[in-house]
Amino acid sequence: MTKFLTAALLGISLLASPVALAAQKTVTLSVPGMYCATCPITVKGSLTAVPGVAKVVVSLAQKTAVVTFDDAKTAVPALITATTNAGYPSTPVN
Ligand SMILES: [Cu+2]
Predict the structure, then answer these.
(1) Residues within 5 Å of ion ligand 1, judged at the Cβ atom
(2) Which domains does the chain have, with CATH numbers?
């Protein structure tokens, strides 16, 4: 019983720590269509709305969106579709 509880608690702590999730991936998307200060807000919103996306960091200067996502819930093509539907076609950099 004690062993089970320890294992359960360990599992919970792993779930609470995004870095420890094996299914979590990060992709950098090139978003060349961003040209003004509000573009990144639109791009970030479109990506954040995709189920499975955990974190979005958009750079207007670099015209990139760095997306951290759960690859059991979503994938790069869905992220590209999301930005494209928002008016900003993107392509993966890595
Ligand atoms: Cu803009």
Answers:
(1) 36, 38-39
(2) 22-92 (3.30.70.100)
